[in-house]
Design brief:
By secondary structure, the protein is mainly beta. 4% of the residues lie in helices and 50% in strands. The strands form two sheets. It has a six-stranded antiparallel β-sheet with strand order 1-2-3-10-5-8. A four-stranded antiparallel β-sheet has the order 4-9-6-7, with no helix packed on it.
Length: 111
């Protein structure tokens, strides 16, 4: 379906993802965007996915572990994770808001 769609606040209800994290997602055929609000103790265990992931931290801090490295991102900082790279993510004791761009679409986030 090739049509432009506008999403207002009411069109983007927050839903629980992992414990301590709420999110919404918007997707097209080949790409998508997610928005996350995470409490200070939220964690995404080690995982990988086909989708490439680009994360921008809006507020707070977000810690990524990958390939035996750990990095903490602060507001305005970005990480780009290639397809199938194993990684974990945590809020490192500080609440966080972040957006992710994905390609291809992670359909499980749209259901």
């Amino acid at each position: 379906m090739n049509k432009v769609r506008i999403y207002r606040g009411a069109d983007l209800p927050m839903r629980r993802n992992v414990p301590g994290a709420m999110m919404w997602a918007v997707g097209l055929e080949k790409s998508m965007l997610t928005y996350f609000e995470m409490e200070s103790d939220a964690a995404f265990p080690e995982h990988s996915h086909e989708a490439e992931q680009i994360t921008l931290v809006l507020e707070g801090e977000l810690t990524f572990s990958y390939e035996s490295k750990t990095v903490t991102l602060r507001p305005g900082e970005v990480i780009a994770i290639p397809s199938n790279v194993r990684h974990s993510v945590s809020t490192a004791g500080r609440a966080c808001r972040a957006v992710d761009a994905w390609s291809p679409v992670r359909k499980e986030y749209l259901s």
